[in-house]
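Can't paste images in this forum, so I'm doing it all in text. The chain is below; anyone willing to post the predicted structure tokens underneath?
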Amino acid sequence: MRSEKELEGVTLLGNQHTQYASNYDPTLLETFVNKHPENDYVVTLDCPEFTSLCPKTGQPDFGRIVIRYIPDEKMVESKSLKLYLFSFRNHGDFHEDCVNIIMKDLVKLMQPRYIEVQGIFNPRGGIRILPFASYSDEAHEVLRQQRMAAQLSERL
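Text version of the structure:
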């Protein structure tokens, strides 16, 4: 079981008075210590109800955000991630921008060994947009290049 000291930065989990941000807010993100930094392992987080706004029309865009990462010393706490992703609900940006913003915020927060963020957005105007962004430390650069190549060759 984790000690109170290990959970010091986790303030949202278990809080019965959750506040939902009405605007994009990366300060909602919280971390906890990775107890297994000697292992490379993948954490997958799937948000099937992501919503943002079109920056031009203000119309809502609906999609799914899938985050996969190999942690180093820190890991993102899932309730804080949920509240952070909900904070995009009134944020006006293109799909590609949202995916890159999410990736950069998580890199800044955790300094993972590897991370990828994929957006799977519902079609608008008959076009589905599927942005993919990735980051790696030097030791995982080959993995990042392989995953990017796989995205380029993927068939729907």
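The first helix runs from residue 78 to 86. Residues 58 and 92 are 7 Å apart (CA to CA).
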